[in-house]
Amino acid sequence: MKLIITIPAYNEEKTIAKVIREIPKRISGIKKIEIIVVDDGSTDNTAKIAKQNGAIVIKHTCNRGLAKAFKTGLNAALARGADIIVNTDADFQYNQKQIPELIKPILEGKADIVLGSRFKGWIEEMPLSKRLGNKLATAVVRLVTGYKISDAQTGFRAFSREAALRMNVLSDYTYTQETLLIAAEHKLKVVEIPVDFRKRADRSRLISSIWSYAKKAGATILLAYLSYKPLKVFLTLGALLILAGLFAGIKVLMHYFATGLVQPYLPTALLSSLLLILGFEVVIIGLVAEMIKLNRKTLEEILYRLKK
Ligand SMILES: Nc1nc2c(ncn2[C@@H]2O[C@H](COP(=O)(O)OP(=O)(O)O)[C@@H](O)[C@H]2O)c(=O)[nH]1
Ligand SMILES: [Mg+2]
Q1: Pocket of ligand 1 (CB under 6 A)
Q2: 246-260 residues labelled b (16+ CB within 10 A) or e (exposed)
Q3: Which of 13, 141, 265, 298 is deepest in the core (most CB within 10 A)?
């Protein structure tokens, strides 16, 4: 069994060495351990220090964002023949000594993805706004995936090779929620274990303000959900519009049958037809989106087999 640890890093020269050194040298059930640091266009000494500490360094020529760096790491690990891939952060917030616990469910064949949950574990410090943001985003992910998880934003997670092969992340910004939507789509088994979360010594590289994060993460979740469940979303929306149209139309029809006139209800009649037309259109869009989804599924299957 080969384990590869991937670490996306953006200007983390102060902590990258500590993170690499904390990774266990030997883990029972694992023959070989490799570390890949994805340096996402850092302007400091992150890459140099990572190399000095024995990591394989892959460099982006410019800052492409965490999701792209995650993807680079995952693909590189797959290409190097990883059986299990652990992703962790470069900021020394997670405790790498917990990697053996994190990969245990995969080694035992009990999970495809293991999330290190901070909320089930120990959190040294997390501002209230971030705590609430995490809870809210997790609630949304729980709702759309059906996974009973407590921490959808954790950066400390393990993937089996099979699960990693399925992770076709499209977002630029954050991979955390999208990977779980993909997992649900492929019915992968997701398990959580409690982990420690230390205070960040430096400011966050990812989150400048909780609002900008909410906006970007919200858009990512919405888009991913739409592309996985288009029919459900559009049919619901279309059905609501059609129902509203019928509701408005009934009065007009009743009056028409009684008197042969539409007259006093002309505005209602217009509103009703508008809602009905809109509703049918939304349903048709749903059908088209569903067909596009089938197309994407075929493409992803090809990608999966190609990578395999
Ligand atoms: N590759 C890459 N990594 C990033 C970027 N922004 C943040 N990170 C890394 O992602 C991890 C989590 O970021 P962090 O700033 O700790 O986010 P927070 O813990 O949610 O506040 C750290 O290892 C960062 O170095 C980025 O633009 N590119
Ligand atoms: Mg962090």
Answers
A1: 8-10, 12, 38, 40, 63, 65-66, 69, 89-91, 93, 155, 200, 204-207
A2: eebbeebeebeeeee
A3: 141
